[in-house]
Give the backbone structure.
Amino acid sequence: MAVEERPKGGLRADARRNRAAIVAATIETLRRTPEASMIDIAAAARVGRMTLYGHFPTRAELLEAALTHALERGEQTLGALEPEGDPRAALVQLVESSWQLVDDSRALLVAAQKELAPARIRELHVRSEARVRELLGRGQREGVFRADLPVSWLLTVTHLVMHGAADEIAAGRLDPGDASRVIRETLLGAFTTGNAA
Amino acid sequence: MAVEERPKGGLRADARRNRAAIVAATIETLRRTPEASMIDIAAAARVGRMTLYGHFPTRAELLEAALTHALERGEQTLGALEPEGDPRAALVQLVESSWQLVDDSRALLVAAQKELAPARIRELHVRSEARVRELLGRGQREGVFRADLPVSWLLTVTHLVMHGAADEIAAGRLDPGDASRVIRETLLGAFTTGNAA
């Protein structure tokens, strides 16, 4: 069912501008109105419906493009961190910065989680996951994170806990102001071997 | 987009038999062939395609019916457990029995996770979750499970970890024989306060 898409570089300048405006409008509009429709987003982007559907025939494709854009922006922030020193402190810093990014695009993520398969959302995170994976492996080698669970599993749990928190906030079951603490405590509890400070 | 469905009780006897055969065939066929198509399932159920699509117009509806059926069967198993005594041991027992059920319908769950929204899958688990919720609350009151995280969050983590394990096995990143241990260690690590045995 994949629609063949011209590479971004192959679009004319006005089409590139429209595409960028639509993606930006998707992120902004969902932040204010999590249930915003494709038509609401076209209006916010100041493009016609035909233009919107020309770039993104389905809501799933639009949400995937917006999530990819948000992740690329996030990469710039996370890439500036230097996860050295105590792996626990580095994990807390990395997870808290990541959560600020998730929280900022929370409505987008929740909308994407309704439209895209979990495995696809996970694939889109491959770059941001590499950084966490490296830190988890170092923490295991230094004896700070438990080594009786595979690194790939610790990474999965990190992903699930952060995305689960976004869903729980959307469902009204988790206080947004408490989410960062809940994520941190859950991951440190699950990953450390009882020698945590 | 919901298709109006006649209540089960309103179906004629042969239609009820066909429906039950389709649901049973879905579970069996996916167990052997996780990528089985609607047509494969119709053949296994010995019904025509028109009959299959008459009962379940979409793959999502078929998978939801099959998952609901598997959960109802699972409820009978879990309802026979008596989660008394040490909350840690009771949680381990409940989670290991639940995992056996998940593991038995793992391909169905992974298929459902591709077609149904996470929130919908969560809703289908409402009955089985009540039992875990009660145990988690008791463990908190007895000071065995950490009380600085909401029960609703511990329940969410339990759900995410078990379903995440099914996805990780399907992706080839987790050894099926190790999954039960990994789930148990992750949840006990996250939920206990360091006074675990």
User: Anything to note?
Assistant: Chain B touches chain A through 31 residues (CB under 8 Å).
